[in-house]
UniProtKB/TrEMBL annotation:
InterPro entries per record: AAA+_ATPase, ABC_SmlMolc_Importer, ABC_transporter-like_ATP-bd, ABC_transporter-like_CS, Mo/tungstate-bd_C_term_dom, P-loop_NTPase, Transp-assoc_OB_typ2
Gene it is expressed from: fbpC
Signal peptide (UniProt feature, chain positions): none
Protein name (Swiss-Prot/TrEMBL): ATP-binding cassette domain-containing protein
Gene Ontology CC terms, in alphabetical order: ATP-binding cassette (ABC) transporter complex
BP GO terms, sorted: quaternary ammonium group transport
Organism annotation: Pseudoduganella albidiflava
SMART domains tied to this protein: AAA
GO-annotated molecular function: ATP binding; ATP hydrolysis activity; transmembrane transporter activity
Length: 369
């Protein structure tokens, strides 16, 4: 996070919990490019952590460093008190699932799952059966990967990753090759399985919805650095930087100024919170659901008039883009549900009064990234 990109209100995010897996000061360069820049990340035992960020921010490289598939240039990786940072992958006690299922096409499902299991034959067969039951693929032992759907192949990959009961499960975009419906159901199953087994999971994804739905903790990355570590609610509601606010969900930004009476305003809108001493201007941030389309104008309330520019039907809500009547360049995105009084007023070209839930607003200092 840049120094200037300082949150003015409620700047605190949850203090990182004591870790079981400690990633401390991990750096990685490829040629001249710094891909990981002194990453610190504690991961609790049993936690489901998502590494979330845009393409190229270093998520996969960090996962590969934890796996020992890539050697870090600096920093340490300590798991359960054991420094694993220089150990070969086989000695690190993890299972891994990749985006491309990475199954052996010439081996059956059972052989794929058993690969790497060093057990006597009978025990191995029993373990494979147990693992296939776990991913609800019992009865498919003798089939080949090409006979399975993408979702089924990924379940086999998951069973194989868990075959040796590792303490850590590493997942590199495991759901992104699947179609939306399969992805959603496998997402829920993955979470339920991780909970049931109590295995610590680290998953790379660029899909914010997936991270919000699955993770106990999200580490948001940008350009080789960690921008914020927090629960899904924290990173969504209390983003620590403009980058996080803009990357996760939809963000509204309004310039604000504190007047002589100490009231923070943006046009006709006034906000409950004041700015710190010596900071007369800032940018207010809120989410689409924090803006209310009011059924009636009321003088004296903190309302402003807006013009409905566009309305999209998103199923549960109407998402509208509004421009402020006082400044047509200032756009707000609002989500209005069917039961809200403002719902029928959302007609393109219409004028509507809007207000913003004062405590939902957060301020960022202007000039930030
Ligand atoms: N083996 C490599 N040699 C050179 N550059 C690499 C190598 N692996 C990754 N990079 C570069 O490092 C940067 C980070 O890559 P990485 O795969 O970790 O990003 P990512 O956040 O996982 O992105 P994506 O979601 O697109 O996979 C990228 O600019 C990438 O081109």
């Amino acid at each position: 996070m840049k120094q200037t990109d300082l949150l003015l209100a409620d700047a605190e995010t949850a203090a990182p919990p004591a870790g079981w897996l400690h990633i401390d000061g991990v750096s990685k360069r490829f040629g001249d490019a710094v891909v990981l820049d002194r990453i610190d990340l504690p991961v609790r035992r049993g936690e489901f952590l998502c590494l979330l960020g845009p393409s190229g921010c270093g998520k996969t490289t960090l996962l590969r460093v934890i796996a020992g598939l890539e050697a870090q240039d600096g920093g340490t990786v300590v798991m359960g008190g054991r420094d694993i940072g220089a150990l070969p992958p086989a000695q690190r006690d993890y299972g891994i699932v990749f985006q491309s299922y990475a199954l052996f096409p010439n081996l059956t499902v059972a052989q794929n799952v058993a690969y790497g299991l060093k057990l006597p034959r009978r025990e191995r067969a029993a373990r494979v059966e147990q693992l296939l039951q776990m991913v609800e693929l019992d009865g498919r032992q003798e089939q080949y990967p090409a006979q399975l759907s993408g979702g089924q192949q990924q379940r086999v990959a998951l069973a194989r990753a868990m075959a040796t009961s590792p303490s850590l499960l590493l997942l590199d975009e495991p759901l992104s090759a699947l179609d939306a419906r399969v992805r959603d159901s496998l997402r829920q199953e993955l979470k339920a399985l991780q909970r049931r087994l109590g295995v610590t999971a680290i998953m790379v994804t660029h899909d914010q919805e997936e991270a919000l739905a699955l993770a106990d903790t999200i580490a948001v990355m940008s350009a080789g650095r960690i921008e914020q570590v927090g629960t899904p609610e924290q990173v969504y509601r209390e983003p620590a930087s403009r980058f996080v606010a803009g990357f996760i969900g939809c963000a509204n930004w309004l310039p604000v100024r504190q007047d002589e009476e100490g009231v923070v305003r943006s046009g006709d809108l006034s906000f409950g919170r004041s700015l710190p001493t010596g900071v007369p201007v800032a940018t207010a941030f809120c989410r689409p659901e924090d803006i209310r389309v009011e059924p009636h104008w009321s003088a004296g309330g903190s309302m402003t008039m807006a013009i409905v520019e566009r309305v999209d039907f998103l199923g549960g809500v109407r998402r509208a883009v509004l421009s402020l009547a006082a400044d047509r360049d200032a756009l707000l995105t609002v989500d209005v549900s069917r039961n809200d009084p403002g719902y029928p007023l959302l007609v393109p070209g219409g004028r509507v009064p809007v207000s913003i839930a004062p405590h939902a607003v957060r301020y960022f200092i202007d000039g930030a990234a």
